[in-house]
Design goal:
Layout (H helix, E strand, L loop, with lengths): L1 H33 L8 E8 L5 E5 L12 H12 L6 E11 L2 E9 L16 H14 L4 E2 L3 E3 L15 H4 L16 E7 L9 E6 L8 E7 L6 E5 L4 E7 L5 E6 L3 H15 L20 E7 L3 H10 L3 H16 L4 H14 L7 E2 L11 E2 L1 H12 L4 H7 L2 E2 L2 E8 L2 E9 L5 E9 L5 H12 L5
Parallel strand pairs: 4-5, 4-6, 9-11
Antiparallel strand pairs: 1-2, 1-19, 3-4, 3-13, 7-8, 7-12, 10-11, 14-15, 16-17, 17-18, 18-19
């Protein structure tokens, strides 16, 4: 009996000692990290649990709400996997109404979007803009339409007309990463502008071209030439449409990317141009709200997006804000019939409340983390990551996480905010789930990141 008791005592001690060791190492590393002069006025939080047991390994300020930046994308991803399913696909439909007589359509052509963020994206062969427009033109011709007496119209379903969520800052929304999401997105709602700089510092910079050609209006350059090697310090603004900042001297086609403000109109007009070039006559295209005769629409073609797991792979790997905003609106659309950011976030908070997370730990304004108003606790993030680990779609989510510092984790960066959260397996086989957030640091982000890596390295030993 004494031998049996001793065996179980040693066994239990063997499971406790490693936990104590990693906790002690984290405590020492945390004290050094938190005492760094770069974090003198910062707010910090680190929460670590054992992935298998859920036991808390380390906790500092885990119930304090902090701006998560793009680490918030793990919340949107996991919620979308659970509520939409990894095989969910968006549909964009093409149809027409009216009478078709002798190749003349006395009616309208409709395009019905469902919020697909990949529509016209260059990331998949079947979603590229040429592939989609060629398919739509082919289907219109196959239907026997060669002349339209009215116009190509957009047929939107119920949706929030505001593409950009509350809380985004003015400097962001004109640039590619600040593109809002609608029911008909196009080319990830992004365009490229090519700039030519002068030979001397201070010389004016001219706009060479945009790709694609913009139908919504042109931009004015207030950009100037800066020293060689200074990089991209140019910003695109929406009201008025202008570009400010600097790019290096002696550039002939320096590319920066902006947000398309009216993606549905950009697509419709691009489709109309291609129809005209292919011999289909039509009047000037325009957009229209939902018509009263929707039951008479003859739907002739449906474009399907890649499956959700493929969308989320790109969402997390490249941290595409548009995808996060589209997903939140899609959750709302599928749950209550209207694509709305506020409704989607309410559904998200309600779902996680049912799983035991206080809604006040998820004070969210968007789906991507771009808003500086967002506040999330590291406790909530780790709890959500723990939930995901036991779901059948987890391999797809885990694959979507990038690798930084040899660890599977999502990063997050906005002004004076840096974060990492994810999973790691130590050399001894123990698995950890963690979230580390820093707000209001000083100095260079690259210096802070190296210090955060040193702290997280304690989970590797």
């Amino acid at each position: 009996m004494k031998k049996v008791v001793l065996f179980f005592l040693l066994l239990s001690t063997g499971t406790v000692i490693p936990a104590q060791k990693v906790a002690d190492r984290l405590e020492k590393a945390w004290n050094q990290f938190a005492g760094d002069s770069q974090l003198k006025y910062a707010m910090l939080s680190l929460y670590v649990v054992d992935a298998r047991t859920g036991a808390v390994v380390f906790d500092r300020n885990s119930r304090t709400g902090l701006a998560p930046a793009s680490t918030q994308k793990i919340i949107t991803s996991i919620t979308s996997f659970e509520l939409l399913g990894k095989d969910y696909r968006y549909q964009t439909r093409l149809g027409y109404s009216g009478k078709l007589e002798k190749a003349v359509l006395k009616g309208r052509v409709y395009v019905s979007g469902s919020g697909d963020p990949s529509f016209g994206s260059w990331r998949w062969p079947q979603t590229k803009e040429k592939s989609i427009i060629d398919s739509f033109v082919l289907q219109i011709k196959k239907a026997g339409i060669r002349d339209m007496t009215e116009t190509v119209m957009l047929f939107p379903e119920k949706a929030d007309p505001v593409l950009v969520p509350d809380g985004w800052i003015y400097q962001d929304i004109g640039n590619y990463y600040g593109a809002g999401a609608g029911l008909l997105n196009w080319r990830e709602n992004q365009f490229d502008v090519f700039l030519r700089s002068g030979t001397k510092t201070g010389d004016p910079v001219t706009i060479v071209k945009t790709e694609p050609r913009l139908y919504e209006g042109s931009y004015i350059s207030y950009v100037t030439s800066a020293a060689k090697g200074t990089g991209d310090n140019a910003w695109i603004y929406t009201q008025p449409r202008l570009i400010k900042g600097t790019i290096p001297v002696n550039e002939t086609a320096f590319k920066i990317s902006g947000a398309i403000l009216q993606p549905a109109g950009q697509f419709i007009k691009g489709l109309a141009d291609t129809l005209l070039a292919s011999g289909v006559d039509l009047n000037s295209p325009s957009l229209q709200k939902q018509p009263s005769d929707t039951g008479t629409v003859n739907w002739i073609y449906t474009h399907y997006s890649p499956p959700l797991d493929s969308l989320i792979w790109w969402f997390n790997q490249k941290s595409i804000n548009l995808y996060g905003e589209a997903l939140i609106k899609t959750v709302s659309r599928e749950q209550n019939g209207q694509a709305s950011t506020d409704s989607g976030l309410a559904i998200l908070r309600r779902f996680w409340k049912e799983k035991g997370i206080d809604p006040d730990e998820l004070n969210l304004y968007d789906g991507s983390g771009l808003s500086p108003l967002n506040r999330v606790t590291t406790h909530a993030q780790v709890s959500i990551l723990q939930f995901a680990r036991n779901r059948p779609w987890f391999p797809s989510f885990f694959a979507s996480l990038p690798v930084y510092n040899g660890m599977k984790m999502k990063s997050g960066t906005i002004s004076d905010v840096k974060g990492f959260c994810g999973y790691h397996t130590a050399r001894d086989g123990r698995e950890f789930i963690f979230s580390l957030l820093v707000n209001n640091y000083s100095g260079r982000a690259s210096q802070l990141v190296n210090k955060m890596y040193i702290l997280l390295d304690e989970l590797k030993k």
